[in-house]
Amino acid sequence: MVQNSVFPTLVHQALEQAHFPSQPASLYDPIRYILSLSGKRIRPMLVLMGADLFGYTELQHAIPASLAIEYFHNFSLIHDDIMDKAPLRRGKNTVHQQWNANIAILSGDALLVKAYEELAKCPVSAVPYLLKTFNQVAIEVCEGQQLDMDYESLNCVSQDAYVEMIRQKTSVLLGGALKMGAIIAGANEEDTQLIYNFGVHLGVAFQLQDDILDVYGDPDTFGKQVAGDILADKKTILNVLLQQHLAGDDRQLYQSLVNNTSITPQEKIDAVKNLYTKYDVKSLASDLKTQFTELAFHDLHQIKVPEIKKEELLSLARSLMDRSY
Amino acid sequence: MVQNSVFPTLVHQALEQAHFPSQPASLYDPIRYILSLSGKRIRPMLVLMGADLFGYTELQHAIPASLAIEYFHNFSLIHDDIMDKAPLRRGKNTVHQQWNANIAILSGDALLVKAYEELAKCPVSAVPYLLKTFNQVAIEVCEGQQLDMDYESLNCVSQDAYVEMIRQKTSVLLGGALKMGAIIAGANEEDTQLIYNFGVHLGVAFQLQDDILDVYGDPDTFGKQVAGDILADKKTILNVLLQQHLAGDDRQLYQSLVNNTSITPQEKIDAVKNLYTKYDVKSLASDLKTQFTELAFHDLHQIKVPEIKKEELLSLARSLMDRSY
Fold first, then answer.
1. 3-state secondary structure of A249
2. Which of A47, A288, B172, B207 sits 20 to 30 Å CA-CA off A258?
3. Domain A7-320 homologous superfamily, CATH
4. A147 touches chain B (CB under 8 A)
């Protein structure tokens, strides 16, 4: 995935050079910690790729926007992990686990402010538009996280409501990252909207795929507990589609499996997977994923820049959508 | 206090007209709730007063910056109340008490983003400078809150460290509010710095006074439990000065009172107040308050605008610093 590209190197260097004060240590140590847990850095790369797509060559001027997106992403991880009571993140302790919830709340807040500090370093004429874009993304991510929490206590969530939730919670940040790059590059309004849509559609497709891989992924390559979502009764596209199609006694059977502590984890996984198979839920979910992937490629196709400029984004998109299962 | 002034009305109207989405209700209801708990609205008024001081007449263009400051303040209240496990705020349930901690974390986050949304509505040429100023204030407030939490577990905090903590936690927001008004009004750099300093010095003086009033305030007018800080072993300027001056056996006596559960609350209050009297701590604290008040008035005095323009700020400052005790 874009291994020969300059973007990962630029992002890596920028994060290496990012400096946070030493004191108060209990505010800034957690920030250094979360940023050091090496993710794929897709989001900050997308800012640079969005700018590059539209012929912007002074990529160092897009670095602050790139960092703003990565800081925002990590802020949301710190706070979401508190809310989800998650003990681990990328195999390491979450911030609230490593320190405590108060420190996680406050260092998250500070990291969000640091994201806005990076925005303030962007090319000055672009700052107002970037600020509006970033705010729009940020508020949608909050709304998406709230919907996610609200949906956990609902028995039945429609497919559209679920897709809208993941769009807000995870996908607008990808679209927003690309859009910020486009803004810095001075792309026209239509292309700016198209690259945003590309990111959002790709993000939805990626999240749908993530839901599918949780159950059907190759345990050796997926890197998480297989079917962890089933065991946690988590809302996923599979679960949402199943609820939509369950008929007759199967509805009661499924309800008896949810929150069931008298069967073994493997029995629960097998029973739910049997229902998924019976109602062809994997295919339905894969079709939906394909729809969103095609929408994304269509968005990118419509953007009026030379096709060669689109190659890195196409390659990234393909590599993201081509994980084995 | 500025009763005949236009500023409270403008702020009140702006908050009345502020609109938040109805959904997700669990995200926006807490925001509506915290903003409805009527505070004195000093901070948003300071933005308008800062602009007015420098002859700015289009005050409606300063309203978004004014709301940004009020939203930020309320965001910090929501999150601080979680961290302090405070059940009540202005006599009503805190957000985490009324809903839960997760909802308080996320609605606080959303309110911080909403503050930045207001910033994005400010006069476009001022947005980059306002954003920088706001970020600087916001990060210092986070640092101040962290220091406050750090200091709770320390036995002894120096006077300077304590003043620096309250400067960051509470005073820079007052200075920042005034500075944002000055920026919108296009004040020169020197005056902008002076009005910022005025707000910070006044804020420190006000917080010192608050510490003094907690113990020595008139119970009928102060509106909080008298000497609640002593009972909670909270760091205050009185406690910090006492620790600095305690001699001989009194140090041991004081330590025996801290975290002491075998005496009645009134016995603890009386014993600590006896030590305050013995070491003349109230006078020392009042002197320090006076020093900061004088610094504030000196800052205001130096600003190069007609004296008549300063009258509302002077009157506000005097009314803030003239609460009975």
1. helix
2. A288
3. Farnesyl Diphosphate Synthase (1.10.600.10)
4. yes
